[in-house]
Design goal:
This protein has about 475 residues and is mostly helical. The protein has helices spanning about 5-20, 40-60, 60-65, 70-90, 90-125, 130-140, 145-155, 165-175, 180-200, 210-215, 230-245, 265-285, 290-310, 340-345, 350-370, 370-385, 385-395, 400-410, 415-430, 440-445, 455-460, 460-480, and strands spanning about 30, 35, 315, 330. The protein has 22 helices and 4 strands. It holds the Pfam family CitMHS.
Length: about 475
């Protein structure tokens, strides 16, 4: 359907185009292939838009403005400015090709993530995580034992689940058992954040940054597991130090009953089969891993259909997973609803996924303008790959590691496999240095409000930094042949 432009829109478009056409060509470092706008006002405007959007993202909770909104608006305005500039120089095709490339990059990651999140949501609805929580609470662990058990579980679960979900699951256990000991809960939350971030660093499924590196083909799937020992050291060093601050006592016994809903174990197995399918598509068939994940989504869809046609009522469970005698009967999915895959797709973290879209297009726009080329020359040319990649981890404690990693991938520096592994490690675990450095830390500050705080985490920053440096040193020692 044709869309008529308003008179005001035509005047605005014509006015901006005339301004751009009147600009002296010497302002651009033009080549037959592209324009370097990094020294032009268009470039400065793009930087300002991205910086403003990022400030609004940081102030999300204060302003109650979801982070996707400013980032998506900034992306649209940056590419509008780029498109008008290239149009004025008769190069519209170059801008179109570039933005299609970035949209394709995002699309592959988006399809991958929605399948992964759909499975996690399905397992949550089948009460897989509630059952695990109840098991931990009922075991009667001492405070120190619980500190280590939750840390180790966070480390390994986050290798296949996102670090925020994993951290929140462990935090629920800590709050249930340690409600009478805030000090234990606070220190254990720090440990959980470090463990969850470290666990996501050695597996492509553990973190968006590792996923991006794998899908870009910088590192083969199984090569990531060379980071297992460095990631383990990153977790163990601060955990060992914090161990001595945990009270040597045992909490009062708690009894919680829980049971999973029908099909829970089979959904876990289908998720593992989906992971293997994605790996097979990427490694053996050289097809995008997202295609394998979408094939895996059909496993869940077909199994969901089986649950639907064999539906039987089950008692609704209360918050602790105990069947309520006076509660109404419910279906397989609770609340009287049958299992429905699309219900789990609707429960996606759409704000995060759309924020990720904005980040990809903003950083892609800055790369197309020419800034990342200059930044790459400074970081990987003047500083060198090793100092630059170590610095990336420290920066990711303040700036979200997703735009940082996407910027590095957009730079495409010429690095060895060992250096790509190093930047994957540092970008993944660097966020543990501050509580605001990762989604896991931010989530736990809300979940354990007043107990786990920014200052609580900052108190243990020196121990976490020792773990960070230890993991980097271990990587050079163990994986030296990859450099």
């Amino acid at each position: 359907m044709a869309i008529k432009k308003s008179s005001a829109g035509k005047l605005a478009f014509t006015g901006i185009s005339l301004i751009l056409m009147l600009l002296p060509n010497s302002a651009f470092c033009a080549t037959p292939e592209a324009l370097d706008l990094s020294g032009h006002w268009i470039g400065f405007l793009a930087l300002g838009l991205f910086a403003t959007a990022y400030v609004l993202v940081v102030l999300e909770e204060l302003l109650e403005l979801r982070k996707s909104k400013p980032m998506m608006l900034a992306a649209a305005l940056i590419w509008l400015a780029i498109a008008l500039t290239y149009k004025s120089h008769g190069l519209s095709g170059l801008a179109e090709t570039a933005i299609r490339h970035y949209v394709l990059d995002y699309s592959e990651l988006f399809l991958f993530l929605i399948v992964s999140i759909a499975y996690i949501n399905a397992m949550e609805e089948r009460r897989v995580f509630d059952n695990l929580r109840a098991w931990l609470v009922n075991r009667g662990f001492s405070y120190r034992q619980l500190f280590w058990v939750t840390g180790l579980l966070a480390f390994f679960i986050s290798a296949v689940s996102n670090n925020m979900t994993t951290a929140m699951l462990m935090c629920a256990v800590l709050l249930a058992v340690g409600k009478d000991n805030p000090r234990f809960v606070a220190i254990s939350c720090v440990n959980t954040v470090v463990a969850a971030n470290a666990g996501g660093a050695f597996c492509p499924f553990g973190d968006i940054t590792t996923l991006m590196v794998w899908q870009k083909g910088m590192i083969e799937f199984w090569t990531f597991f060379n980071l297992f020992v460095p990631a383990t050291i990153n977790f163990l060093i601060p955990a060992t130090i914090m161990h001595f601050a945990i009270p040597d006592a045992r909490p009062a016994p708690i009894l919680v009953k829980a049971s999973t809903l029908r099909g829970a174990k089979r959904i876990v197995l289908l998720f593992l089969l989906t992971v293997l399918t994605a790996v097979g598509f990427q490694n053996s068939l050289q097809l995008p891993a997202a295609v394998g994940m979408m094939a895996g989504l059909t496993y869940l869809q077909l199994f969901g259909y089986f649950l639907h046609i064999t539906h039987r009522d089950e008692p609704e469970l209360d918050i602790d997973g105990v069947a309520g005698d006076n509660l109404p009967k419910a279906g397989d999915g609770g609340n009287g609803l049958r299992f429905d895959v699309f219900h789990h797709l609707a429960r996606m973290e759409w704000d995060t996924l759309l924020f990720f879209y904005g980040v990809v297009l903003c950083v892609g726009g800055l790369n197309f303008i020419g800034y990342l080329q200059h930044l790459s020359e400074f970081l990987y040319g003047e500083l060198g790959a090793t100092p630059a990649n170590i610095l990336v981890g420290i920066v990711s404690a303040v700036v979200d590691n997703i735009p940082v990693m996407f910027a590095i991938l957009a730079m495409t520096p010429d690095m060895s496999e060992g250096q790509w592994l190093l930047v994957t490690l540092t970008a993944g675990v660097g966020g543990s240095l501050l509580s605001v450095g990762s989604a896991a830390g931010v989530a736990l500050m809300g979940q354990a409000k007043g107990v786990y705080t920014f200052m609580t985490h900052l108190k243990w920053a020196p121990a976490i930094m020792l773990g960070y440096l230890g993991s980097v040193g271990a990587h050079f020692l163990i994986n030296g042949g990859l450099f």
